[in-house]
């Protein structure tokens, strides 16, 4: 391997690691607040790319209809849970809350999509369509079992992932798509050629990570998130609504997934199920970070990206095996050094 090839592999590794870092941060956030290992995080990424690709073609994506179906299901769950206190006013509020917003997005998408929107408007519409899926997913699948064990929540997360994969095939089809670069042009540094899209990925990831660091350290809402992650029962006792915190965590995770999908679309072909591998590699980084430490998760994600890039050069047929194998020594080390504690609130 000559230095030029090493530089290109280093660039690819950093770009992939940046995407894994965003997904890993979302996994750590959701687990810290809700104890849910968000297996479907990758679906937010894939659906965002598929949505943006459809908008670039001037066609109406299937996303608003998927969002409407999720809203209707969330309304049914809420109506069932409050069936003994139902009144016409309460029914109207529940239906308006969970179905009204998706219906409005259906109308807005059908109005705007054929107009040939500019890039900024396409991105904003994609984010608006993907982000509400987070709180709806939490309301449907996880809020009713919020006090269950981590194992049950993990089983539910896999169930949600499989449902979304099937719905993704039905709504978006099996074809892979790509999107236009967010930034055109190239930057040359000696023998290394860096695309504008690569710079956009790294810069956006860095900006988001800094924004999250400021949010958790300097804002009241960020401190409430940290309180929920430290002690859910204590957070409830001091008046922090943990159900609302869970919905907010899923909202942020969906937002991160939407941004990740927008960033990854120009650099890879995305299918309806492509998000699963992205989520798994982010999960490796989150596990190395203990599902607690954000900086360590980011560093681990960059390491996973670099290992994947160099493995694709030395042993391309086994690169996925090599990437997933690195989790074994970390799990063994944690098993030997961590005392077993019963699942507690």
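^ structure tokens above, recovered residues below v
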């Amino acid at each position: 391997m000559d230095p030029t090839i090493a530089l290109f592999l280093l660039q690819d590794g950093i770009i992939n690691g940046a995407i894994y870092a965003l997904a890993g941060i979302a996994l750590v956030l959701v687990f810290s607040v809700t104890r849910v290992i968000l297996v479907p995080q990758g679906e937010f990424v894939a659906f965002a790319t598929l949505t943006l690709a459809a908008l670039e073609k001037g066609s109406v994506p299937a996303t608003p209809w998927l969002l409407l179906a999720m809203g209707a299901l969330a309304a049914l769950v809420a109506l069932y849970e409050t069936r003994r206190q139902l009144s016409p006013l309460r029914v109207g509020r529940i239906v308006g809350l969970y179905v009204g917003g998706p219906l409005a997005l259906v109308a807005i998408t059908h109005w705007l999509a054929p107009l040939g929107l500019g890039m900024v408007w396409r991105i904003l519409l994609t984010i608006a369509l993907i982000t509400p899926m987070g709180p709806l997913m939490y309301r449907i699948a996880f809020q009713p079992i919020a006090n269950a064990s981590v194992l049950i929540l993990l089983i539910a997360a896999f169930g949600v992932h499989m449902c979304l994969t099937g719905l993704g095939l039905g709504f978006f089809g099996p074809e892979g798509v790509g999107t236009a670069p967010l930034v055109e042009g190239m930057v040359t540094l000696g023998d290394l050629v860096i695309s504008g899209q690569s710079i956009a990925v790294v810069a956006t990831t860095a900006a988001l990570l800094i924004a999250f660091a400021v949010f958790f350290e300097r804002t009241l809402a960020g401190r409430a998130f940290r309180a929920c992650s430290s002690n859910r029962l204590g957070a409830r006792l001091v008046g922090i609504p943990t159900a609302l915190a869970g919905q907010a965590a899923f909202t942020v995770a969906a937002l991160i997934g939407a941004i990740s999908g927008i960033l990854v679309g120009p650099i890879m072909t995305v299918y309806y199920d492509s998000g699963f591998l992205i989520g798994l590699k982010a999960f490796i980084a989150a596990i190395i970070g203990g599902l607690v430490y954000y900086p360590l998760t980011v560093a681990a994600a960059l390491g996973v990206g670099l290992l994947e890039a160099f493995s694709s050069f030395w042993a391309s047929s086994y690169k996925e095996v090599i990437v997933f194998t690195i989790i074994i020594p970390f799990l063994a080390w944690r098993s030997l050094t961590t005392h077993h504690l019963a699942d507690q609130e």
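The radius of gyration is 21 Å.
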